[in-house]
Amino acid sequence: MRRTLTLALSLLLAPVAFAADKPTTIDASDIRIAEQLRDKALKDDTAFDFTEGLTTEIGARLAGGPNDAKAREWVIAKFKALGFDKVWTEPVTYPKWVRRSEHAEIVAPVSQPLSLLALGHSPATPAGGIIAQVIAFDSLDALKDTDAASVRGKIVYVGPRMHAFKDGHDYGMGSTLRTRGPSLASQKGAAAFLLRSAGTDTDRLPHTGVTQFADGVTPIPAAALSSPDADQIERLLKRGQPVTVKLMLDCGMEGEFTGANVIGELLGSKKPDEYFLMGGHLDSWDPGTGAIDDASGIGISVGAAHVIAQLPKRPARSIRVVAFANEEAGLYGGIAMAKANSKSIARAVLGSESDEGADRIWKITASVKPDARAAIGQIADVLKPLGIEYDPNAKASGGSDLSAIHAVGMAAISLEQDATRYFDWHHTANDTLDKIDPEQLRQNVAAYAVSAYLAAQAHGDFGSKPGEWAADGH
Amino acid sequence: MRRTLTLALSLLLAPVAFAADKPTTIDASDIRIAEQLRDKALKDDTAFDFTEGLTTEIGARLAGGPNDAKAREWVIAKFKALGFDKVWTEPVTYPKWVRRSEHAEIVAPVSQPLSLLALGHSPATPAGGIIAQVIAFDSLDALKDTDAASVRGKIVYVGPRMHAFKDGHDYGMGSTLRTRGPSLASQKGAAAFLLRSAGTDTDRLPHTGVTQFADGVTPIPAAALSSPDADQIERLLKRGQPVTVKLMLDCGMEGEFTGANVIGELLGSKKPDEYFLMGGHLDSWDPGTGAIDDASGIGISVGAAHVIAQLPKRPARSIRVVAFANEEAGLYGGIAMAKANSKSIARAVLGSESDEGADRIWKITASVKPDARAAIGQIADVLKPLGIEYDPNAKASGGSDLSAIHAVGMAAISLEQDATRYFDWHHTANDTLDKIDPEQLRQNVAAYAVSAYLAAQAHGDFGSKPGEWAADGH
Question: Where are the alpha helices (DSSP H) in A210-289?
């Protein structure tokens, strides 16, 4: 606290720095324009059309897969057709992981096929597969506390259930299990790792997602079972007999791939170098068509930019829409952009990424400087008729890729979607266009249009500064 | 009213021959016992345990497949363990159909994998698959009205949507499309047939089910697309360009297989040759584990028999529980039983099969002789506290297999489950145990226990007679 205070006092003495300390304000006339934008967005289907097009004409977009480049070209063409003032790409390099096939079955004490998906970055099983006894744990902690001797050579299964919440908070547990579980199981000598899918549904459709092997840890085959298949294993284990599973995964790393972030910009009329940053990620997992994760995220930003572009005049600052490369395997697009812009991050006055589906936005939060709180309150007032509440006490990371950019100093808002159903479909074959309600999607567009326009018109900044927010804990 | 009165008076004078015309009645003391049975059944988990066991230890039970005999042995052993007085089998022979694999994709104007399942009794595609243009129809009637010239060599797709209703009536349309569509498409010279799955969900899980090729019609490959995949095809067709699909089905008929109906009986204490008939079917489709279709159906009957068996004394008539062989491909088990019992059908005093899932029963209907209506009313009164309404004007077929037995003269009741969600999961990989609510299942057991007990105790019959009900129109 002291250190921050000293810093603040020292800033008071510096002439240039004063600009940052004047309360940020928004003109009443801009509020009126934002209200009109909001109402116009509620009737605009650009976001849906974009999402429909990307999912229908390209479909699944596994990073590094055959649709990575195809999707990129599709988005570049679409951005150009939509009339962005400037469209460009920035290369992003990431490891390439390939899924060829997976097959699994319970072979004892009964015979049952299992529906599962290899986790991203999982290695393959040896030819002929792994046939081993299953050892089950309720949680990652239970696995941590277990003797390596009891795990060695076995297939570790960890089976907690995720529950549905509006804020989707159970995904914290689910994704931690998926990313860290295989590594931990490997350290204990396990032959392979299975988890109950990190999802809230009971469909026979497993949820894939990336896993991470810590440095020095031998990667082991890792896969997610659909919830009914996890139940099946648990019921058999309850009977007290050893349960043996045969697991065959054909997948693995194949060097590197260079994709790109695709960026479209409406050029600001007064401060074109400063910009509001929004977007979604271009890649998706491969079982579905990446509709809610995350074609709709790009679509929402595109839709918002589109209604802003219809105004007689461009806003003062630029509006930048990004389709990020390879978010799924580790925020590669966001991290690349953060690195490239860390020194000039103050230009990114505020940002928000949509990556939690396309259900209604119900809450706005912000991580901005105190002097910009009132301006966020002004934005929130325009969002209120959309059913969006403002929590001035919660922080915002800006969303997946933007969290990396926020971490190098960009002020951020989070426009939080209702995630009650999101994790029913997330990372599964069920992530398809039919899961998107066009009306809900338009509400999202309205919220992004209002936020982008008002941030681009605000007098004063929101606190973006190199090194700021690094300790925000996102 | 007059006629009934005259009849009633005349009955008083006729000691034996008039027995069939005396109003069927149920003693008040039996009503009290039925009420106790009902309340006991609401606390009994025999049905769930049976369903859990069959789905967990055997799983999918495709007729003629490797689990056909296994499941039969499992049920025989379970019936014996549950203490039926008599357990036996009756052989049933049916065509054997085998599913090996299926693969399909849109190859033009874009590339998209398709999630589908071959229909039962579909032949395979030629080696290398079929690559053909898709021609779409909204309904079977639209296909009927089309010139063969426009269909020849193409893949016919028919895409109406089923909607969810409590009485599941849209399955009439859906199943008609599935059973008759391929035959009709073949007659018009189509290369293959695809339909939007006969289901009410939007999951990426296709609904399989049997199709039928009319005599003299060349069987063509036929498969069901998941609803999101059907949407995908329709969206591409709307763009106005030809849509080409590659279809590879490896499946087909492989001679005949002899399975069996498995029958368990509680022997009647006074009229052991007469019986109440209930059950479900033993086979299931192969993608799921056949929990709601129809392990639960057998489970409900077994549970009902179990609580009746706990009474100090067996009811007057026998209680017969049947696990029918191969319902799915054409009521083979029911038809075999109907043929074998057509002359002695009067012994089957009343029957009801459970084959519409395991949600709450909401309605009872009956096809019985007029003089037994009052007794059905007595049964309905005991069911009322379970939330079951009685519709005295609707007919009853007795349910899938029993409809064949009803058609040769057995009086029938239908205990209708709420089918609102049934067709979300029916014939898909999602037909798994987790879809069954144990409390709903117990309500079903209570309804069957009451019906079986009171029918077995009733004075007089319900109208079963060779040749009766043939014109009932089920």
Answer: 227-238
